[in-house]
Fold this sequence. Notes:
Blueprint: H1 2-36, H2 42-46, E1 49-50, E2 55-56, H3 59-90, H4 96-110, H5 113-136, H6 149-173, H7 177-185, H8 190-219, H9 247-256, H10 265-297
Antiparallel strand pairs: 1-2
Amino acid sequence: xxxxxxxxxxxxxxxxxxxxxxxxxxxxxxxxxxxxxxxxxxxxxxxxxxxxxxxxxxxxxxxxxxxxxxxxxxxxxxxxxxxxxxxxxxxxxxxxxxxxxxxxxxxxxxxxxxxxxxxxxxxxxxxxxxxxxxxxxxxxxxxxxxxxxxxxxxxxxxxxxxxxxxxxxxxxxxxxxxxxxxxxxxxxxxxxxxxxxxxxxxxxxxxxxxxxxxxxxxxxxxxxxxxxxxxxxxxxxxxxxxxxxxxxxxxxxxxxxxxxxxxxxxxxxxxxxxxxxxxxxxxxxxxxxxxxxxxxxx
Length: 298
């Protein structure tokens, strides 16, 4: 009887915790949709901020967020996948080098986002960008040695790299060992086995890592504060050395630094709604690609 009571208490507590989480998420979505839906219009989605950001649209912030996520994904997913392949397929689990890599990955996952921003400012902007400017022009003219969308995206890629590595490695380890041994027994090299057997059976994990990276990258603000995002820009970024606007930072600016915060409340809700919709759309694109690849493989 006592065991049954403990079992029911466990079921009740887990169900209550799940219901609490779902309720909080549902309430947040309801509030954001209720507050922002009336502000959504074609002019809002395609216009630039106006009148001290108390009117106008958010088109530059939408484009900047999409470019940031795409460049970040191009940088983070391949590097994270290659690192995961090395750790899963080649590295000796007991070697000091492998342990150091795992320690670095785990440490990176726990570093505060603002620290990544400071690192990006010092390494990408001042060291790499400043070095490129000095090598090309030889004087103090700044082109790459200033915040821009490339350095912000690479900083964000470092932030999301541990997520990609861990998810891809777990997916690679889930591939049955029999498949590897069968491929090797048929005369394939280890590299051919990885390319032809392991990766095709692990692409869902790779795409899952991309989904998690997109979700994290689209909403983070701290890493790009020092490396590329701008308070306001009258134009869209036309090259990798341009600054950009971002939805999360735009929301932060309007809620804390606007000359009339009350006048921007509707825009804040609508910006949050667009940010959520954009994140869902990018994730849905990856989920759809994963579904198509899985259906093609069957």
